Amino acid sequence: MGMIVPSLAQWLETSGVLDASGIFVTGTDTGVGKTHVGVLLIHTLRVLGRTVIPRKPVESGWLEDSGATDAAQLAQAAGVTLDSRVCPYHFRAALAPPRAADQEGQTLRIRELAATCPVRWEKGQFLHVEGAGGFYSPIAHDGLNADLAQILGLPVVLVAEDKLGCINQVLLTAEAIRQRQLRLAGVILNVRTPPLEGMDNLSDLQKYLQEPVVRFPFDSSHFG
Ligand SMILES: Nc1ncnc2c1ncn2[C@@H]1O[C@H](COP(=O)(O)OP(=O)(O)O)[C@@H](O)[C@H]1O
Ligand SMILES: [Mg+2]
């Protein structure tokens, strides 16, 4: 704890996340940094006095060593024990959740996933929900991440990888979020690879979006 990215704290303010009771974290794709960024969001929210309730309603590619899972990372960041409430449904295959569930003879219903999140929580508590994959990725046999986000009705935080092509991915996803009558709180551009000379997705996106965009730095401590 204590490692706050100052721009992230400011982004939390301008995005309205600090006035919300929770967020639904989605991505432009799988592997873009929803969990990585989510961990620091949770840290920052805690520094700002929130008690964070983490949820990963379903996780596929679940490892036997569950310490490395998304659910474990979110739980650890929130300072809660990883129990079945954090991630009630998990499957071994690294496939979209309904496919991974098929392999274990189970059926995932969007309403059941939604029911894993509390409907009421106290002032000062903050619900952090990470989806699976991107906004239009299947998350259950009967629905997409977008459907789960709609049932929960939380503001949506969109994480994108800061790379060539991301403007298209962000604007398409932003349009889909609005189409679902959800509020896009803002966009986090996550730097996972060295940026191309002359590329500036942050300022380009700011021209096309009303919502605040922040760049999240590459974290070399991960490899050190
Ligand atoms: N800013 C970053 N700096 C360094 N590594 C990162 C960064 N963001 C993500 N990663 C790494 O990239 C991989 C995918 O990120 P992850 O948060 O798991 O994506 P998602 O939750 O969207 O599937 C992970 O191994 C993570 O540690
Ligand atoms: Mg993740």
Automatic annotation (TrEMBL):
Mg(2+) binds at T35, D70, E130. Its EC number is 6.3.3.3. The keyword Metal-binding applies. InterPro entries: DTB_synth_BioD, P-loop_NTPase. ATP binds at G31, V32, G33, K34, T35, H36, D70, E130, G131, A132, G133. Its main location: cytoplasm. It is found in: Cytoplasm. One of its GO terms (molecular function) is dethiobiotin synthase activity. Its cofactor is Mg(2+). Pfam families: AAA_26. It is an enzyme of class 6 (ligase). The keyword Transport does not apply. Substrate binds at S60. It comes from the Bacteria. Pathway: Cofactor biosynthesis; biotin biosynthesis; biotin from 7,8-diaminononanoate: step 1/2. The active site is at K56. It catalyses: (7R,8S)-7,8-diammoniononanoate + CO2 + ATP = (4R,5S)-dethiobiotin + ADP + phosphate + 3 H(+). Keywords: ATP-binding, Biotin biosynthesis, Cytoplasm, Ligase, Magnesium, Metal-binding, Nucleotide-binding. Belongs to the dethiobiotin synthetase family. Homodimer. Catalyzes a mechanistically unusual reaction, the ATP-dependent insertion of CO2 between the N7 and N8 nitrogen atoms of 7,8-diaminopelargonic acid (DAPA, also called 7,8-diammoniononanoate) to form a ureido ring. PANTHER family: DETHIOBIOTIN SYNTHETASE. This is ATP-dependent dethiobiotin synthetase BioD. The lineage of its organism: Bacteria, Pseudomonadati, Pseudomonadota, Gammaproteobacteria, Thiotrichales.
